Structures are given as structure tokens and as C-alpha cells.
């Protein structure tokens, strides 16, 4: 904006059977000195939070037995353990993580098929699983056990700062860079043809990395430690209760299965995520193992649902396509609906900055 702030506008839409329809919108005005990566991450978190809130309302309403979300169910999870670098919004990622965990739990209890569909992917989960399958037992628990064992001593006496987490992640990534893999999207584009699907990969802690594992070890330790409420303020007591509940939920969270499907020859692949129970493994927890390849036959019931809703090269899923077309924020909507509201709230005639007026209008 021309007064130096960044303005985030997000809207979400959910449509269902028998005319079921719910929408949500929210805006944030952030100070201009906040770094761009933090602003972009805040915008992404706000959008996902609105989508998850609508999804939870749909499940609670009992309006249907299938719930499709745009985007992966797994990819965000490791990053939701890190605070947002914006004052007053530090715990926003934890709020989104709570929404994910509540959604997983409710869908499993109410026998609702939950699928996350991603049109694009930069992940390497399939490539890594194929290369690692000879080194892992069918369900490998070594990663999580070793990580917690290594890190318990570190978290006994010290808090882990954000800078330390970043440094640990960078150290881990140096080793990974020695064996770079093409993304799963590139792999499947270059070396597969025709319609079909991959073997699913059950994902536990494989993408969390050492830094995230250290946070998880902290959480596990904090759950076991007694909290002396008399030493806390009322606000701290409420936060401690909330964190304890979230920590326990995270440790009991289900593993997530992911596979890729090409619904027609010449089509791009879709990434499909679902809780492990959908693949017949309700016993697996997110932090109990690293990863495992399983048979493609476990994914066939999900593929049948996707084939029924496939509408051709431009319409990978009929319901999500309609939502995407309706919910997309257009410049006219922002100019004539949201901007006048912001002007009334601020109290003077604000405008986009020169760069936005020149290139984006």
C-alpha cells in the first residue's frame, strides 16, 4: 500500500451436496518493515486456516462422507512447528497445526474420506522412498527413535531458538544436497507414460528433518514434565493447557499416505494425500516411523472417486475446479469490495503503491 503496509486478503469456499455452501474471508494489515518471506508465509497460513475452518464445519455438519481439500495434507506439517516471524502472530502456525490435527481426528471418528489433492509438487517423497526401500523394513521406526534418543539430552536443559533450528536444518540439508533427486513431478513426467498410479508412500517423520525432530523431542519431554500452575499467570496457564493438548494430539496424529495418479494419457499427475487409515493402516502414527512404500491396490478405492469427478485436461476434479473458479480473488473484487472497507477502517484515502498500480492492475 502507498502508506508502507502490506495488506493480505484471503477468502475460502466450500461447496457440498444438496446446495451446501459456506465461505469465509479475512484480511490482515501488516507493518511495512516485516520481511517479505514472513508476509508470504502469513498469507499462506491465513488461507489454509480459513480452508481448514470450513472443512471442520463441514465434517461437524454431517453434510457428506467425502471431503476434498486443495493441496497436500502432509507438506505443511513439519513447518507448522516453527513460529511465524511477525510480532503478535508468532503462534499462528500452531493454530493451523491444531486445525489439521482436529480435522484428522474428526474425519477418522466419523468415517469421512479425507483427500488432499495437489496439482503441482516439488516434493521428492516418492523418489526417496524408492531409493530407500532396500534400507528400511516395511515400517521403519529407526529414524524417529534415533532422533529422539539423540536429542533428548539437548532439550533437557535448553530452549531451542529459531536460529538454532535453522542452522540444524541447514546442516542436514548439506548432506542431502550430495544426492539431489528430481522432484516427483519431474520423475513421473520423464519416465512414465499413459494413465495410472504409483505405489503409495506412507509418510511419518521422513520430511520433518533433524530440526523438526528436535522440536518434537521437546514436545514429548514437555508432555511428561509436570507444570506447576501456581508459578504461572492466568494467561500462561491457558497457553500451557492449550500447548499440552496440542502436543498430545501431535504425538497421536495419524501417518499420512501419498500417491500420484495420472487420470488420462497426456495429463499432469496429481498428488493425492490421505490419512494412513484410508490405506488400511490405522495403527500408524505420524512420529512412530519414517516412511514406507505399500501396494498400489490400497489406493484403488480413492482413484475410483477421482475418476468419477474427472472432467478432462482442464478440469482435474469437478468440485475443486468450481471452487477454484469462484474463490479466486480478482482485481475488481479487491478494488470495489475490500478496498473501500479498508479505507473506512483506516479513515483516509489509501491507495496501492506505485509498483502495484503499474504492474498488477
How would you characterize this protein structure?
With 361 residues, the protein is of the alpha+beta class. It contains twelve helices and nine strands. The chain has helices at 36-61, 92-109, 125-132, 142-156, 162-177, 184-191, 209-224, 234-251, 300-308, 318-327, 331-346, 354-359, and strands at residues 6-15, 21-30, 66-70, 113-118, 196-197, 201-203, 256-262, 270-275, 291-293. Strands 3, 4, 5, 6, 7, 8 and 9 form a seven-stranded mixed sheet that branches. The protein has a two-stranded antiparallel ribbon with strand order 1-2. α4 (142-156) packs across α7 (209-224), α5 packs across α7 (209-224) and α7 packs across α8 (234-251). It is globular, with a radius of gyration of 22 Å.
